[in-house]
């Protein structure tokens, strides 16, 4: 929610005009996100324990199932209302719990002052690193991925379009972006304390979590071994709240996408409101079960998260930009850009899922761990190529059909411009526009019930 300008009237145009070619991708991303959040709430295999199993010693299966069932039940019962109100409670829990744990971590007897270990070798390497010039491309690619990848996530617009006014939506975006920075501070401090700790003096022992490849679980490990037991329990509240907050959003957004864009628009256009409510309920259960099943397929939460945001950045983000800011964009360009993004992304490879690259970009070489890595910002390059493809083929399709080079019967997306409207039609259009503006004061998207 880092960009408030998405909340103005163009967001409403996105909902009305949206190129539905991207919606199946968002459903898949929601499934990956469910799996990602559930795995955070449960336990990662290969020794990388999540919060529940590290601190409470719960079974992996039980942790996953409990998290999934709880999220599905209150999403089913309350729809967007339950998601919104529980998000408020969860946000408070995250903020309070993390900041309560920080003083205990900073003052524990096993760790040195983090200001001393920032640039000096002590028990471990300094926790402040450096960016080498030959790695700048990869860092830039990761930065753009994190900054822009989430902007095409449907749950974001579900919140924005449910606001009572454009002003409220804008304020929500700007406030949340600032609040995200505040919430990120405890995470940095936890990592700094862990890098400043003599783990040999704790019950955890040596080697360090980083050497055991457990860096992804450093929060629960630090809470368990560096804080009193009652503080560890408070820390669970922060992580559990984050897990539930993300999963319920993914459940509701994917269910809404399927029910509105596929079931209502394609399968059963005459479906009643009552029928749509049951479709959403069933979709929530199906998506929840599918996300739960995904957690048993891979050992790393990073895989689910990165693949999800990667799909959003390289495939969905270019279409979002075109829909919002380029009136010439149409379904033909969106289809080509969609295929271009998927093909290039698969050909570029992904080591997290064991997919070897077929395209070797400049700077492709071994990293410090001995693994072949793409140091060129290839994700950003794919995103830009997909964006240009949408614009180019939208323009070409517009010329082909508007110039009569192809018969109108071949125009699947109906992009051919119609004759100029008569005076009566123009007045009717103005009236409809006025009605749309008047409706802006009402909630922009109704997903309040399931």
Automatic annotation (TrEMBL):
Segments of this protein annotated with the region Disordered: 423-450
GO-annotated biological processes: acetylcholine biosynthetic process
TM region positions: 60-81, 88-106, 143-161, 173-195, 230-258, 278-297, 303-326, 338-361, 381-406
Keyword Transport in record: yes
Molecular function GO labels: choline:sodium symporter activity
Gene3D superfamilies noted in UniProt: Sodium/glucose cotransporter (1.20.1730.10)
Membrane topology: Multi-pass membrane protein
InterPro entries with a match to the protein in the record: Choline_transporter, Na/Glc_symporter_sf, Na/solute_symporter
GO CC term (a single one): plasma membrane
Predominant localisation class: membrane
Keyword vocabulary terms for this entry: Glycoprotein, Ion transport, Membrane, Neurotransmitter biosynthesis, Sodium, Sodium transport, Symport, Transmembrane, Transmembrane helix, Transport
CDD domains reported for this sequence: SLC5sbd_CHT (cd11474)
Compartments, record wording: Membrane
Family matches, as Pfam families: SSF (PF00474)
UniProt record similarity statement: Belongs to the sodium:solute symporter (SSF) (TC 2.A.21) family.
Descriptive protein name: High affinity choline transporter 1-like isoform X2
Gene: LOC115013668
